[in-house]
Write a structure and sequence with these properties.
- The chain is of the alpha/beta class.
- It folds into 2 domains: about 70 residues, Ubiquitin-like (UB roll), CATH 3.10.20; about 80 residues, Translation initiation factor 3 (IF-3), C-terminal domain (Translation Initiation Factor IF3, 2-Layer Sandwich), CATH 3.30.110.
- It is built from 4 helices and 8 strands, in the order ββαββαβαβαββ.
- It has a 4-stranded mixed sheet with strand order 2-1-4-3. A 4-stranded mixed sheet has the order 5-6-8-7, with helices on one face.
- The radius of gyration is 30 Å and the shape is rod-shaped.
- The protein starts with about 25 loop residues before the first strand and ends in a 9-residue tail after the last strand.
- This is Translation initiation factor IF-3.
- Its main location: cytoplasm.
């Protein structure tokens, strides 16, 4: 009975005990059996006799449906379900790899390995070619590096944003290729 406060409870919580405004309610007992349509005062008395709360589970029904249950335990179980759902949710991050037009072969291979790892982990990857000084004149070298990355990763990626120049940087956005489920014939 202590689980349902009469005072300032959040509006997202279902109404319980004396906060239920309907004159008559359809009552479901704590064991799940239907009690029937009875006056709210009678339903409250039944809940108090069992040491439980009367909780409105379907307020829009005619008459509203209420259940006799331990409200504190009900809220705890809902909170646990919400935590479990958050734990299972996946978050996609945006990783960034920076290269220069003069990046050497070994450094390129290392950065390519990092991109491959990010994509296999399910993250999106932003590849940035950074031009310094007079390198900005040779934008074709930056474009060559970005097209080489796409060619080297092949089927593993899809290009979400084509290479484009913004000031002294040329960027391209890569995402993991959506794998189509194979249907056995």
């Amino acid at each position: 009975m202590e689980g349902c406060a009469i005072t300032s409870a959040p509006s997202s919580d279902p109404r319980c005990n004396h906060r239920i405004r309907a004159r008559e309610v359809r009552v479901i007992a704590d064991d799940g059996s239907q009690v029937g349509i009875i006056p709210t005062s009678e339903a409250l008395r039944m809940a108090q006799e069992k040491g439980l709360d009367l909780v409105e589970v379907a307020p829009n029904a005619e008459p509203p449906v209420c259940r006799i249950m331990d409200f504190g335990r009900f809220k705890y179980q809902q909170q646990k379900k919400l935590q479990e759902a958050r734990k299972k949710a996946t978050t996609v991050q945006l990783k960034e790899i920076k290269v220069r037009p003069k990046t050497d072969e070994h450094d390129y291979q290392t950065k390519l390995k990092h991109i491959r790892r990010f994509i296999e982990d399910g993250d999106r990857c932003k590849v940035t070619v950074f031009f310094r000084g007079r390198e900005i004149v040779h934008k074709d070298r930056g474009l060559t590096i970005l097209t080489r990355v796409v060619a080297d990763l092949g089927e593993l990626i899809k290009v979400e944003q084509e290479p484009r120049t913004e000031g002294r940087m040329m960027t391209m956005l890569l995402a993991p290729q959506v794998k189509k489920p194979t249907v056995p014939a």
